[in-house]
């Protein structure tokens, strides 16, 4: 479906709970300018007034004109339904939460998982090309992660600052662990932590751990 500028403006004002008169007052422009756009009577609006209108409803001018550009918060209308969700490949490789698992070089992909593109962009602030779905096994990250959980890994984030849960190769295999930077060390050091207190933390130089990516989301069956 091809959406028009009128469709986008009406969708945005409905989303904000405003009417045309209120939008015009907020933008300090005449009501007829707003009404003409909403009724499809203004295909080439005055750009100065359009900028004021865009600022009032917190969208970029190009979004109103062409459907391209940023919208504050959720986009009230999608130009292409295929762009509403991002397909993230599922890697057929398991990260251990115990003693490590062998890393396989030529990894096949399973069925992708789909995430809302606005959540990827605005909440995670991640590049979809850097995201992978993996599974974890073991009990060393309980109660945070359970055996069989699905994790979303951002391979573009490899720095342990700020601390978080990462997928890494610790020299023995692929593991899911909490990493914490140890300051004032040369060479740089990290503390590798299991959330399960049964497992003791240990330290490695940053060169000794190969950080695959940071865990940004997880899910489990119940």
Account of the 3D structure:
It is a single chain. This protein has helices at residues 5-16, 20-27, 31-38, 47-57, 61-66, 117-124, and strands spanning 85-96, 109-116, 131-137, 150-154, 164-169, 174-182, 189-193, 202-205, 210-219. The chain has 222 residues and is of the alpha+beta class. The protein folds into two domains: 5-74, 434 Repressor (Amino-terminal Domain) (Orthogonal Bundle); 85-219, Umud Fragment, subunit A (Ribbon), CATH 2.10.109. The protein has a nine-stranded mixed sheet. Helix 2 packs across helix 3 and helix 2 packs across helix 4 (47-57). The chain is elongated, with a radius of gyration of 24 Å.
CATH fold group of the largest domain = Umud Fragment, subunit A
Class based on secondary structure composition and strand pairing:
alpha+beta
Helix content: 10-25%
Order of strands in the sheet with the most strands?
Answer: 2-1-3-4-9-5-6-7-8
Count of helical regions: 6
Quaternary form: single chain
Question: What topology does this entry show?
Answer:
Blueprint (H helix, E strand, L loop, with lengths): L4 H12 L3 H8 L3 H8 L8 H11 L3 H6 L18 E12 L12 E8 H8 L6 E7 L12 E5 L9 E6 L4 E9 L6 E5 L8 E4 L4 E10 L3
Parallel strand pairs: 1-3
Antiparallel strand pairs: 1-2, 3-4, 4-9, 5-6, 5-9, 6-7, 7-8
């Amino acid at each position: 479906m091809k959406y028009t500028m009128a469709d986008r403006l009406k969708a945005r004002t409905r989303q904000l709970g405003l009417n045309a008169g209120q939008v015009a007052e907020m933008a300090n422009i005449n009501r007829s300018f707003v009404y003409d756009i909403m009724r499809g009577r203004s295909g080439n609006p005055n750009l100065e007034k359009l900028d004021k209108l865009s600022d009032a409803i917190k969208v970029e001018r190009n979004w109103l004109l062409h459907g391209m550009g940023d919208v504050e918060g959720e986009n009230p209308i999608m130009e292409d339904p295929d762009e509403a969700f991002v397909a993230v490949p599922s890697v057929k490789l398991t990260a251990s939460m115990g003693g490590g698992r062998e890393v396989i070089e030529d990894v096949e992909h399973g069925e992708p998982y789909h995430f809302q593109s606005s959540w990827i962009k605005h909440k995670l602030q991640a590049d979809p090309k850097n995201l992978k779905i993996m599974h974890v096994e073991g009990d060393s990250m309980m109660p945070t992660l359970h055996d069989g959980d699905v994790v979303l890994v951002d391979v573009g984030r490899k720095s342990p600052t700020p601390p978080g849960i990462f997928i890494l190769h610790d020299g023995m295999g692929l593991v899911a662990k909490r990493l914490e930077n140890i300051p004032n060390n040369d060479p740089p050091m990290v503390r590798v932590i299991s959330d399960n207190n049964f497992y003791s933390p240990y330290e490695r130089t940053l060169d000794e751990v190969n950080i695959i990516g940071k865990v940004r989301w997880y899910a489990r069956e119940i």
